[in-house]
Amino acid sequence: MCIDLFPWDSATAGLTFGQLANVQTVGIGLYLALAVIQAVSSTGVAGLSRRLATLRSAVATKRMRTEIDNVRRLSGEVSGIEIGFHDLNRRLLGLVSILFTVSVGYFAYCTIWQNIDAGHDGVWFIFFYYLALPISIFFGVAALIWKRCRDTAKHVKEAESRIRRALLGL
Questions:
Q1: What is the mean pLDDT of residues 60-88?
Q2: How many CA atoms lie within 13 A of 18 on its CB side?
Q3: How many C-beta atoms surround the C-beta of residue 12 within 10 A?
């Protein structure tokens, strides 16, 4: 038995569009799932905002002047992140809508011609467009969200620790 570690060329030769329909339906689902990124970014910023609201209330109650200024600065950073995510979400929604529309259109084309051999180009296009592209977009945007929130979340955590120590007298 011979194992071919890169079997794409031999395997793609006889695949029809009908045989690739499962890949396409998964890909269409992945494009729809990209909308989840908008919820993830909104939830992350909302979590930071809630934490800052709690800190703001605590420092205002105890009249901690230095920390009040720090919490205001952090609130400004979170607002900047939120504004940036609104722009990102708007652009992402437009891009995903176009990609989704093309994927459904190509799926319809492949459904009509499902008994035709897809050929190497057709198979590569389907694997790239329906699997690799949406997964790459997801990980790229998730990394961008993580990068934008990382420093501010760290500063919020540090402020929480300082304020907690001050409130508890530690």
A1: 86
A2: 5
A3: 19
Q: What angle do CA 94, 100, 101 make, to 5 degrees?
A: 90
CA distance 121 to 141: 28
Q: Could you tell me if 127 and 19 are in contact, meaning their C-beta atoms sit under 8 angstroms apart?
A: no
User: Which residue has 């940036």 as its token pair?
Assistant: 84
pLDDT band, residue 154 (cuts 50/70/90): very high
pTM for the complete prediction? 0.73
| Cα–Cα distance measured from residue 111 to residue 105, given in angstroms and rounded to the nearest whole number | 10
For 67-89, what is the mean pLDDT? Answer: 87
Please provide the size of the chain in residues: 170
CA distances from 134 to 6, 12, 24, 92, 100 (A): 23, 21, 12, 12, 10
Q: Which single residue is written with the structure tokens 């508890």?
A: 168
